[in-house]
Amino acid sequence: MRLSSSSFLPRFSTLISGPRFLNVHPRLASTSSAEQPTPTPTPAPAPAPAPAREQAEEQGHPKPKRPYSQLQRNVFALYRKAYRLIRTKPEDTQYHFLLYLRHAFKHPSQGGAVGRRDFSAIEHLLRRGERMVEQVFGDVGVRDVHLPGYVIEEVQREQARRASEKEEEAQGKPKR
C-alpha cells in the first residue's frame, strides 16, 4: 500500500504530519507556517453513558440510588431487630406489637418527620428507640400492647385507602 494514495492520505494525514489536535480553528490552520501559533487542544467530549444504563433508562427503570448512610442503616437494623422480637410474642398479640412498632417509626411525634440531615435528632431517636425495643419488645414479661384509639383508626384508614387504590388499579383508573 502506498502512502501517497488519495484514499489513504486524507484519513491519516494527522498521524503522518505530527501531533493530533481534536479541534483546530480553521483560521489557525490557514496561516503561514512561519507565524503559525501552536493550536490549543479543546477538551474531548464527555464519554457517553454505558449502554446498559441507557437501555435501563429507555425501559423506564429509575436511576440507581445512593448507598444508605450509616445512620439510615442503624435505623433499619433497629426496625429489623424489633420486627424479629415481635415473633417471640404470643401469636394473638403480634398484630398489636406490629402496629405499635409502625406507629413508633412513622408517627411525626415519634420521629417520622425528622429531616435527613438532622443528625442530632436522629441519634437521639435511635437511642430512645433502642430503649423502647429493649423495654417493650425484648422483655419476655410483656405479653400485649394496648394502643390508643386514634392509632387503630389511622391503621384502618390506611388499610381502606390501600384497598380502594387496589380496586381502582384493577379497574384501570389512574391514581389520584
TrEMBL record:
Residues 74-131 form the Complex 1 LYR protein domain. It comes from the Eukaryota. InterPro entries: Complex1_LYR_dom. Signal peptide: none annotated. It holds the Pfam family Complex1_LYR. Residues 38-50 have a biased composition (Pro residues). Residues 29-69, 156-176 are annotated as: Disordered. This is Complex 1 LYR protein domain-containing protein. It comes from Tilletia controversa.
